[in-house]
Specification:
The protein is mainly alpha-helical and 185 residues long. The protein is 74% helix and 0% strand. It has helices at 2-13, 18-34, 36-41, 43-56, 62-81, 87-100, 105-121, 128-140, 149-159, 166-178. The longest helix is centred in the middle third of the chain and has 20 residues, at 62-81.
Length: 185
């Protein structure tokens, strides 16, 4: 029965309709959460879900993109809470997508706010996996880069995180000295 639901969801995703794609991704994500043993015993199903969610983050519809990002965070939150082996894969997928879409202010806010919630909830997540490429991305656009409130909130959460190491503290401090902040800080 579960395989039939996945087949239906995959067919819906391929229809190229925004609503169908979102429903398909939501169903697949829920099925993974509620039936992880079934999904993970067949690498085809877990690969299918990850592939479609990654495609969703690059869709032409902002609704599909945002839904895919939120669903990836939902899966990561669940996997981190049950110490599922797919948690690091989700975390790296989201980190890559965040850096890839860093110039899009709306998407960056969505990513950073969700990462902030995640880092507050799970002190075992290694923040440097996100922080190092994020700092490099900011440094690349240093002269034109303006740190927003949500950027600063995430940086503060990272600075206080249990997994923050001294190398990242130095990089973060160096960044905050060099990059201009708006007058509302």
């Amino acid at each position: 029965m579960i395989d039939l639901w996945f087949e239906i969801a995959n067919t819906c995703f391929l229809k190229e309709e925004t609503g169908s794609k979102i429903l398909a991704l939501d169903l697949m994500s829920d099925l993974w959460i509620y039936y992880p043993g079934h999904v993970e015993e067949s690498s085809d199903l877990s690969d299918l879900i990850l592939t479609l969610l990654k495609k969703g983050t690059r869709d032409r519809s902002d609704l599909v993109v945002n839904s895919s990002i939120v669903l990836l965070f939902k899966l990561l939150d669940y996997f981190a809470s049950v110490k599922n082996s797919f948690a690091p894969i989700m975390f790296k997928t989201l980190t890559f997508s965040c850096i890839e879409n860093h110039a899009n202010l709306g998407m960056r806010e969505l990513f950073l706010r969700n990462f902030g919630e995640l880092f507050n909830k799970f002190q075992s997540i290694p923040v440097n996996i996100l922080l190092e490429p994020l700092i490099k991305q900011i440094q690349v656009g240093e002269k034109n880069y303006v740190i927003n409130v949500f950027d600063m909130e995430l940086l503060m959460i990272c600075a206080e995180h249990a997994k923050m190491n001294i190398k990242m503290v130095i990089l973060l401090f160096d960044l905050l000295i060099k990059v201009p902040t708006p007058s509302y800080f």
